[in-house]
Amino acid sequence: MPKNKAVAGSGGADGRERPETPQGPVRMCVICRRRFAKVELNRHVLTAQGNLSIDAEKTRPGRGWYVCSDPVCEQKFAKYRPGARRGAAVKRGTRGTAGDSLDKGGKHA
Which of 28, 56, 58, 76 has the fewest CB atoms lying closer than 10 Å? Predict the structure, then answer.
């Protein structure tokens, strides 16, 4: 049976409108977990001192956390602290990889 190739924004078989898909890169709000176009979200990164700061240009290196403009999400993000593992990796300038769980002999610990 062939799949329905309806265009985003067009009415479906039941007549309801489908939401338009964002154009360009898509990112997810860390609070509400909804997806938005990257340009619609605020990006935050960790400074060397371990504080979250706004990355207005969205180009600073490192792990970024995206937050939508919903006031509830902004309030919850004010109390948000990155996980200890991710935060520590960002401070060190490294990323957690599958190799982190390997000992020097190349075998799982």
Answer: 56
